[in-house]
Amino acid sequence: MVRYRVRGGNALRGTAFIQGAKNAVLPMIGAALLAAKGRTVLRNVPIIEDVRRAVELAEAIGAYVELHESERTLVIDASKVSSPVLPAEIARRFRGSVLFTPALLHRLGEAVVEGVGGCNLGSRNLDFHYLGYKRLGAIVDEGETVIHVKAAGLTGATLYLDTPSHTGTENLIMAACLAKGTTVIENAALEPEVLDVIDMLSKMGARISGGGTGFITVEGVDELHAVEHTVMPDRLDAGVFAMAAALTQGEVSLVGTGLDLGVVRYKLEQMGVEFHRQGAVLHVSCDGPLRPINIITDTYPGFATDLQSPMMTVAALADGTSYIHERIFDGRFALAGELNKMGANVEVKGSRAVVRGRTPLTGTQVTAHDLRSGIALVLAGLAAEGETVIDSGYLIDRGHAHLAARMRALGADITREISER
Ligand SMILES: CC(=O)N[C@H]1[C@@H](OP(=O)(O)OP(=O)(O)OC[C@H]2O[C@@H](n3ccc(=O)[nH]c3=O)[C@H](O)[C@@H]2O)O[C@H](CO)[C@@H](O)[C@@H]1O
Ligand SMILES: C=C(OP(=O)(O)O)C(=O)O
């Protein structure tokens, strides 16, 4: 059992090193498995629990993987992939397991998905993935818990996503890369992580055009080769550190090449947070009261749902009433109850939340219900009076690397503890 203990009151000051993106590295590990020869090298790999699970899953299907933690580098040799089974005990622990299916289909002609995990956010369907595989010629047998996908070879087709699913787009691109002929994916996701994955696949020899337009064309090729690729910075991790500076009235320099916070920056600016860029470094500071804000989550370039919970914490510390409308997931307000235990005033009605600030927060025992509610409670702890203890810290470790150490380097009073229960 992992637990975070935070004693609030310290302003965060200094340089924060932003990790590589979780939502880019996981599909990249899936992409590396498409190469039947050679060794893929991934750099700027975040050392998070989801990456450890992805390594275990790749090994379970027969890949050879080296995770060099201090170098933040993964070396993957997929030449000996031999088992089509994604075992439940690993696959159910993270969402990224779903991204191994295209490689298994291409390499072995079948994939047995014993389960897919990830944050518990309400319904998280995979129908676009399986309907897409079917249109490319696969047979999909959806059992109660196990899904069996088989294909003697895939053939290009026109695919349409009802909504621009992030992993759905990545999976269908990977499936199309080695399919015969041309695939068109309409209403594809625009997230920068998807574009980074397209970049890596293109280096591997894939022929993909239209990334970032919502209308992607993939010309199938006969094989893909192993390459070296550097994972883009994690804009969600960066957003969290920017918010930590904001709500502690601190000043933090974010280091992570090419960081673009987009709408998150604009929303924080509206709240009174100041940003200025000095070359490759983004400075974030706040030295006055926070103003309330309205947030509507959306797919990129909208406000990322993954930063909705951390933003709820910031809103609880703003002077006035903020409104949050969650449009991506139907169960992403578990944070509200925990924040209210600390003294916040958050009222949830369906997909909307009203946050009445500012109420003083007081440290207490709270629970992370998912990765982002967990990190949002860490943020609350930084601003609270007294000690906040956050249980189920493993969920935070799924997506943030060396969190306590990175925050301590900025002056936060935070420890990560492991206990028997
Ligand atoms: C590993 C990874 O990259 N995870 C991210 C990814 O998750 P993930 O790729 O699972 O999220 P999706 O974009 O697929 O899901 C968004 C919404 O679409 C619905 N949907 C999705 C697929 C499908 O086949 N049918 C369907 O109905 C889901 O139920 C959900 O309501 O994007 C989410 C939305 O930006 C982020 O919160 C996650 O951090
Ligand atoms: C929802 C998230 O992750 P996953 O899709 O990996 O569960 C997240 O990162 O907030």
Automatic annotation (TrEMBL):
Record field: catalytic activity: phosphoenolpyruvate + UDP-N-acetyl-alpha-D-glucosamine = UDP-N-acetyl-3-O-(1-carboxyvinyl)-alpha-D-glucosamine + phosphate
Active site: 119 (proton donor)
Location in or out of the cell: Cytoplasm
Pathway(s) annotated for this protein in UniProt: Cell wall biogenesis; peptidoglycan biosynthesis
Molecular function GO terms recorded: UDP-N-acetylglucosamine 1-carboxyvinyltransferase activity
Domain Enolpyruvate transferase intervals: 6-402
Binding locations of UDP-N-acetyl-alpha-D-glucosamine: 95, 306, 328
Record SUPFAM superfamilies: EPT/RTPC-like
Annotated protein name in UniProt: UDP-N-acetylglucosamine 1-carboxyvinyltransferase
PANTHER family assigned: UDP-N-ACETYLGLUCOSAMINE 1-CARBOXYVINYLTRANSFERASE
